């Protein structure tokens, strides 16, 4: 059986470029206790300053005691210990495992600066369990690839330096050093899928196949290679698709592909956009419903932190849309001399007024939303047109129009923010450019003066 060698851990970490700090994800349990102790023995050989971060989920009555114990242990080792309290409040029916994991990694993302590493104590047995869980959930090669050794996380990187070692090697290290660790009783609750595998399934597998953790981890490595191959092929396809607006993907180009490649391209497109890839059910809805929907339909697929919609020949990916402003809502806006801005409610960004001529100060405006039955004359000498038609000409999706600010002076519509100014009457010209910036959909608007064809 391989042994845990602190010097080899330090050498492997030293091969990484541009490291400022090495944060150990320190729960105080066996695995993280071993990792922190091992690295503290070779701290002078590490590529960056060694420190610990403890996430207090607030789910156990003794969680504050555990946080204090981790601080004390780090003081003994001469290390900084950052404690991040979460205070989770799960709702009935919500997966506690998933909630805790997502909140924990959100805390890690918030912690990491550029050139920081987050070191977790995942080992070979964890990898085998992750593969089995993915199989039982019907995962594809991306899911079966399980846990990579290194991946980006926030502004830094997540590294799993113990992934090639069995849990028994960590136990041997702890016994040899006489280590103590926190015993979290939730690790024995068989209602959690991973605990059930660990305590009931894996012992049976080891009794028949003693090296099952190593061989399952090897299979995960093969799946990771296959997943990399799919991503490489998808990257080539995406590079050949004519450039559209950011965050969009041509449906026509997707329909020219076979279904397996189409699925890989959609997954890769979402991943490159910074979104969590969909599970097989949501992916099937994108492929089987959205791509073949009528061009004037409004299909959508929504999962955690991600929303995919369709408009004309494009798929759009975005953060889930917030509640649309009420059509009868109104925000007052007083204009002084020169450029003047108005901060809109989150996440709607802000408006900037840029008068074309002097003497535009002292105007009292109001901002409304969602009144698509109004009309606007986009330039002098042109007839008034319905907002719906102007939105269509500008290529603004129907599901986004309720969020576009409409600027009024009195009862007169003078601008559609991000689209065009409105001439108040047939013989007048529009007197201001109103830009709409700082919102999530900026790349999908023409902005005044920009070609919207």
From TrEMBL:
Residues 365-436 form the Lysidine-tRNA(Ile) synthetase C-terminal domain. It catalyses: cytidine(34) in tRNA(Ile2) + L-lysine + ATP = lysidine(34) in tRNA(Ile2) + AMP + diphosphate + H(+). GO terms for cellular component: cytoplasm. Keywords: ATP-binding, Cytoplasm, Ligase, Nucleotide-binding, tRNA processing. The keyword DNA repair does not apply. InterPro entries: Lysidine-tRNA-synth_C, Rossmann-like_a/b/a_fold, TilS/TtcA_N, tRNA_Ile_lys_synt, tRNA_Ile_lys_synt_N, tRNA_Ile_lys_synt_subst-bd. ATP binds at residues 27-32. It is an enzyme of class 6 (ligase). GO terms for biological process: tRNA modification. Its EC number is 6.3.4.19. It is found in: Cytoplasm. PANTHER family: TRNA(ILE)-LYSIDINE SYNTHASE-RELATED (PTHR43033). This is tRNA(Ile)-lysidine synthase.
